Fold this sequence. Notes:
Strand order of the largest sheet: 1-2-3-4-5
Helix content: 25-40%
Largest sheet: 5 strands, mixed
Distance between the termini: 37 Å
Number of strands: 5
Order of helices and strands: EEEHHEE
Number of helices: 2
Amino acid sequence: GIWGGNVSLGKLELKEDLFDELDLPLKIKNSYIGGITMKIPWKKLAKDPILVTINEVYIIVSPNIGRKYNEEIDMKRRQKEKEKQIKKIEDAAKKLKDKKKQSLKSKSKKGRKDKDPDKPDTFTEKLAAHLVKNLQVKIQDIHVRYEDAETNQSSVIAMG
């Protein structure tokens, strides 16, 4: 079981609408993941890595002829991407400004140590950062097949 350190899932299917959110001109005809196994070293969680193995990824995709290009959706997606980039730049500028203020405050108050807001200080934050850093993902046997019987109906195109 999970508390023993081993988790195993088998024969998983991917959602057919997986590419819809990504606005790709593809649709999934058939897909499955043969298995996902996780080895979690509960007793040595702070030292040993968490191992995740994904086996037998099989996906058949075809063109999504019914999906028309929607300029409005594309413009909204681009606008969101630009807003995210602007927010990242603003956040970075704010952090830099805050660090300068902290530096000036610490220089003016020499006897007192100020806490660095960017440094993780709780055990759970340090453990979470360590777990993410030590996560190992191994993917084996990936097969993606593209089938197109709609573009040229006199012959089927298949590759993968």
